[in-house]
């Protein structure tokens, strides 16, 4: 399939779920979808269309939390990023781990660093942060403040 | 049968990053594995948000001492993708040369350690001696044996001097005979076959399901290589082949990496001999608001960077995904069902990085120490010795 065919196929199939399409460059496209449709979109793109899951990026943009699910169509080198916007203060979205293993770790990571709850994730333990890290403090949020007053941090750099 | 828990880590002797494996074994068989990471979490993504676009290149170069090119490469491509802009031809060639040199020394490092853990110290010595040659080449080209600091958004920092090229080409040609010898040492040895064939198989379906990358997926028959799929740098201008093998076991992962080294030599040579003239840097001044994605094929697989800019001189978000992040979870598919003496090499077969101090112990239920790290390596080496005895 060519680039146009792939984008058109996604557009036709998920007409009601797509909010916005930003066709950035020949190798990049960003598609904003409704958070509740992520599971069916991902299932189709990963399963039926055979795209590879690269990774997901979580971004805190003050008003809401954005997650970008990056998928690559390898034959034509197209990276399609599905963007969802989650409302604060309790961001929530369906987990993709029941569909494919590749999202397991990144969802755990976004969960602890940005405080997004992935509904249906089989094992939402911490991945990177230490055990003594307090609950409810998310280091990648904009409003993150140093919580450990005793810690010695090198701020000279 | 009673289940025993074998903790390996948090500082694993085989892996580059500190990782903690909890193997549950029944007798000799591994029945479950849990991987914990985060012992060396440095918060580089957050750190990068406080640096300017130029400074970030140096910060992320220090993510890994072995793939110290792939991260800046992916990052600079992501920044260039924001604008979007293409770097000058000469810069593309220089970037490719440095990236391939890194692949060569990284694969040699891995091969040496894999040999060591199987009890083949000859391979270990050869591979590491050969790696020294590559590091010398890198020192001639960039001034550094590691952390080359060659990349910047918009081009490269240093040019390659024309008078260095003949010597460098001669040097990388001189490693080919030793590579051939290494390949023979691996492919002709019946005991090496017995130790690695059919061990730790990652099937094609699992490879897709876990989105495994690089040699780990190419050994399972999934032809996935960013250099070919989404060509960047000078990879589409030189002749080379993607190495794919289909069995998915440890042996195939070794073979894929060895054959890839020959391709790397080919790419490096062609790039050095056909180096085009012209500028090496675009002198980017301002990065406009927007977002960019850069991905390159690191020695271990695809390195993926996402950078978002708001028009200031710092990124607002910089996401880094190293290939091992995707490859590590495949242990769930490869280690379970194998014996504990094979676990050592299977856990090393995806080539997670190696660097940290050794701290590993086997404990029984009451917490008595049974084996230390060296003992597990010894266990693996003894198995090879035994098989060698039987073969003779």
**Sheet/helix structural class of chain B:** alpha+beta
Question: Which CATH architecture of chain A would you pick?
Answer: 2-Layer Sandwich
- The amount of beta strand of chain B, in percent, is 5-15%
Q: Kindly state the number of beta strands of chain A.
A: 7
Low-confidence stretches of chain A: none
Nearest-integer average pLDDT of chain A: 90
What is the CATH T-level topology of chain A? Beta Polymerase, domain 2
Any overview of this molecule?
- The complex is a heterodimer of chains A (157) and B (392).
- Chain A has 157 residues and is of the alpha/beta class.
- Helices cover 21% and strands 32% of the residues of chain A.
- Chain A has a single domain (3-119), classed as Beta Polymerase, domain 2.
- Chain A has a 5-stranded mixed sheet. A two-stranded parallel ribbon of chain A has the order 6-7.
- The N and C termini of chain A lie far apart (49 Å).
- Chain B has helices at 44-49, 53-61, 70-82, 89-117, 121-142, 165-174, 176-187, 190-196, 204-209, 214-218, 226-229, 250-273, 323-327, 331-334, 340-349, 373-391; strands at 3-8, 20-26, 29-36, 151-152, 155-156, 290-298, 301-309, 315-321, 361-363, 369-372.
- Chain B has a 3-stranded antiparallel sheet with strand order 1-2-3, with no helix packed on it. In chain B, strands 6-7-8 form a 3-stranded antiparallel sheet. In chain B, strands 4-5 form a two-stranded antiparallel sheet.
- In chain B, helix 6 (165-174) runs antiparallel to helix 12 (250-273) and helix 8 (190-196) crosses helix 16 (373-391).
- The chains are: A alpha/beta (157), B alpha+beta (392).
- At the A-B interface, strand 3, strand 4 and helix 3 of A face strand 6, strand 7 and strand 8 of B.
């Amino acid at each position: 399939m060519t680039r146009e065919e792939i984008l058109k196929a996604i557009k036709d199939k998920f007409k009601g779920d797509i909010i916005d399409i930003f066709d950035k460059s020949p190798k990049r496209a960003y598609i904003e979808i409704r958070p509740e449709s992520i599971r069916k979109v991902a299932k189709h793109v990963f399963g039926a269309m055979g795209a590879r899951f690269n990774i997901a990026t979580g971004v805190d943009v003050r008003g809401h939390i954005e997650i970008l699910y990056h998928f690559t169509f390898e034959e034509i080198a197209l990276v399609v990023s599905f963007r969802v916007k989650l409302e604060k203060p309790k961001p929530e979205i369906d987990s993709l781990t029941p569909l494919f293993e590749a999202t397991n770790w990144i969802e755990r990571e976004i969960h602890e660093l940005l405080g997004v709850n992935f509904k249906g994730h089989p094992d939402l333990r911490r991945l990177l942060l230490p055990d003594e890290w307090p609950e409810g403090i998310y280091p990648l949020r904009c409003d993150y403040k140093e919580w450990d007053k005793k810690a010695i941090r090198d701020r000279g750099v | 049968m009673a289940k025993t828990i074998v903790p390996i880590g948090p500082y694993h002797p085989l892996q580059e990053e500190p990782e903690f494996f909890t193997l549950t074994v029944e007798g000799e068989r591994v029945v479950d594995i849990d991987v914990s990471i985060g012992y060396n979490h440095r918060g580089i993504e957050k750190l990068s948000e406080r640096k300017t676009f130029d400074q970030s290149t140096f910060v992320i170069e220090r993510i890994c001492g072995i793939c110290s090119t792939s991260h800046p490469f992916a990052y600079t491509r992501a920044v260039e993708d924001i604008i979007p802009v293409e770097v000058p031809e000469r810069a593309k060639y220089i970037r490719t040369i440095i990236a391939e040199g890194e692949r060569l020394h990284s694969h040699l490092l891995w091969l040496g350690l894999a040999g060591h853990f199987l009890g083949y110290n000859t391979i270990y010595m050869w591979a590491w001696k050969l790696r020294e040659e590559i590091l010398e080449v890198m020192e001639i080209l960039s001034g550094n044996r590691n952390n080359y600091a060659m990349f910047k958004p918009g081009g490269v920092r240093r040019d390659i001097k024309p008078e260095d090229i003949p010597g460098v080409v001669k040097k990388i040609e001189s490693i080919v005979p030793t590579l051939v010898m290494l390949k023979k040492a691996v492919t002709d040895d019946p005991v090496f076959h017995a130790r690695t064939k059919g061990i730790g198989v990652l099937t094609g379906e699992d490879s897709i399901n876990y989105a495994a990358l690089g040699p780990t997926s190419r050994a399972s028959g999934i032809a996935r290589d960013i250099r070919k799929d989404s060509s960047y740098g000078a990879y589409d201008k030189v002749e080379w082949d993607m190495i794919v093998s289909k069995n998915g076991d440890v042996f195939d992962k070794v073979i894929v990496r060895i054959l890839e080294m020959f391709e790397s030599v080919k790419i490096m040579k062609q790039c050095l001999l056909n180096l085009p003239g012209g500028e090496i840097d675009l002198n980017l001044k301002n990065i406009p608001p927007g977002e960019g994605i850069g991905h390159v094929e690191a020695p271990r697989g695809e390195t993926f960077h996402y950078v978002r800019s708001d028009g200031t001189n710092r990124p607002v978000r910089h996401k880094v995904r190293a290939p091992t992040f995707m490859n590590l979870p495949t242990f769930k598919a490869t280690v379970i069902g194998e014996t504990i003496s094979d676990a050592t090499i299977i856990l090393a077969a995806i080539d997670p990085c190696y660097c940290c101090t050794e701290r590993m112990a086997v404990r029984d239920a009451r917490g008595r120490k049974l084996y230390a790290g060296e003992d597990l390596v010894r266990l693996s080496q003894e198995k090879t010795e035994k098989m060698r005895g039987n073969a003779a």
